[in-house]
Amino acid sequence: MLKLLRIIFSVIVISLAGYGLINENFEFQPVMMLFLSLVMLLMGIEEFQKGKKGTGWLSIGVFIFILFVSMKGFILN
User: Fold this and answer.
1) Cα–Cα distance for residue pair 60/77, rounded to 1 Å
2) Where, by residue number, does the polypeptide cross the bilayer (predicted)?
């Protein structure tokens, strides 16, 4: 289930990034960052389940940072 969600969120991130690059329209960038943070959260949870705590904590830290950047993007736009 986590792997399926990670794949779906990754496809959304790649689609939004591609749209922004092709059309030079970056208004969806905060949404892309939000989905990217969710991908990192899911990766962190998967790493914890595999027993890799170091990588899991790193992914959770990256999730928090990207979530913060995404929220700043929503507030400033």
Assistant:
1) 26
2) 5-22, 28-45, 57-76
* DSSP code per residue over 65-77: HHHHHHHHHHHH-
Tell the residue number behind the tokens 């690059």, with chain if given.
Answer: 21
Contact 26/20 with Cβ under 8 angstroms?
A: yes
Residue 26 phi/psi, 5-degree rounding, is -105, 25
Q: Is residue 70 a contact partner of residue 37, using CB atoms and an 8 Å limit?
A: yes
**What pLDDT does residue 22 have?**
95
Tell me the per-residue pLDDT of 4-59, one tens digit each, with 9 for 90 and over.
999 999 999 999 999 999 999 889 999 999 999 999 999 999 999 999 999 999 99
pLDDT of 2 above 90: no
Q: How many CB atoms lie within 10 A of CB 44?
A: 21
